[in-house]
Amino acid sequence: MKKELLMQICQSFTTISMIGVYMIKNEKCINISSQASKYNLAQVFINDFSSRTEEINIFSSSEFILFGIIRWKNVNIAIGPAIIGNPTMDDARSIILSHPSSHISLKELEQFFDFLKTLPSMSYRQFLDYIKFLYQAISHNLITDIKDIDPLYKISDEASDAVTTADLLAFQKNQYMEFADSVNYDFENKLIYFVKHGYVDELLDYTSEFRYTMGRMGNDALSHTKNAVRVLNTLIQRAAIAGGLDAKTSYGLGSIYAQSIEDATNISTLTSISQNLMREFSSRVKDVRKLPSENKHIITISAYISEHLYEKITVSQLSELTGLRSEYLSQLFKKETGMTLVNYINREKINEAKKLLDFTELTLVEIAELLSFSSQSYFSTIFLKQTGITPQKYRDASQV
After folding, report:
1. What are the residue ranges spanned by the domains of the chain?
2. Which of 32, 98, 114, 138 is the most buried (most CB within 10 A)?
3. Per-residue pLDDT band at 11 (split at 50, 70, 90)
4. How far is the CA of 148 from the CAs of 142, 187, 189, 280, 326, in angstroms?
5. Would you say 128 and 147 are in contact if contact means Cβ atoms under 8 Å apart?
6. What is the topology classification, in CATH, of domain 296-398?
7. Tens digit of each residue's pLDDT (9 = 90 or more) over 110-149
8. pTM for this one?
């Protein structure tokens, strides 16, 4: 296909869909369909999808960023990004930390998050239809069966024993996509919100009428419901970790529920499992986040600290936030919670540091800098005081 015609097709595609198109050449992604942005996510994720050799393929990240890849004759393009649902600050942070070669700094986290919010939001199935449309426009080949390009259909329950761990993880993500395609986004966002903040009663009230009415996810009612509860389990684990529950605890608990789901023989049992797992995860998050106080000022500063862990937080900032004098605020916090305000700030930062030690290869110096400690030495001192071991010993133990 002539380059001029390809450019015209891609530009028209972007006008219709609001999804960008990138030419892949020498491991570089060059925008050919819209105005350039400061953040080239196609380049950020290129190592994740550039090895795909099929003529047409779909890639999804753990943050539910979507890309399509078309390789046809002399055409080699990436289509995206789009996103399922609404991005979170945790999603923005995850992308930055998992792709250090992107050179996006956590210091620009809020700016990057604002960029993610501008991505076209759509269901997985909508995105699939757009990729199908563009492929047919470029190749003039008709796709008669969506299963030919949909990774969701590449793994069946019967074949599950024969596939790799990577395949299963991809299938789990695509199960979620099918779920997100069929369930109201408002429901999904509220579900995550309630779990993340440990709002147990609100969560159970909100989900009491949930009857797994999403699109077909199995050959019969039982397999459909099992798949739905598997997805619910995965989604709630992720929300619980975002809410402060230790990742190992979350995954361990999730594994127990996963086995219960597999062993279930009727829909009534699966309904009970879903209620129990929502109650247990949200209760555990509540316990982790709980401060023994209902004082509105304590609640306000606790929420502020949780959202600004990667910034320097001072008592004077919190004093200005609440309108209370620093001395009085410190006394109030100690009286209401039994701990000093500075100790609470350090505790929350160290909990975040544990996640970085567990799931990234960042050095201690980099983690100390990201969490706005004055030095690695001071970070290690506070970590030891809070946990009883040094950051390096914690990392070594977690990798055993």
Report:
1. 3-148, 155-289, 296-398
2. 138
3. confident
4. 11, 30, 31, 40, 63
5. no
6. Arc Repressor Mutant, subunit A (1.10.10)
7. 889 999 989 988 877 788 888 888 988 888 877 755 544 5
8. 0.49
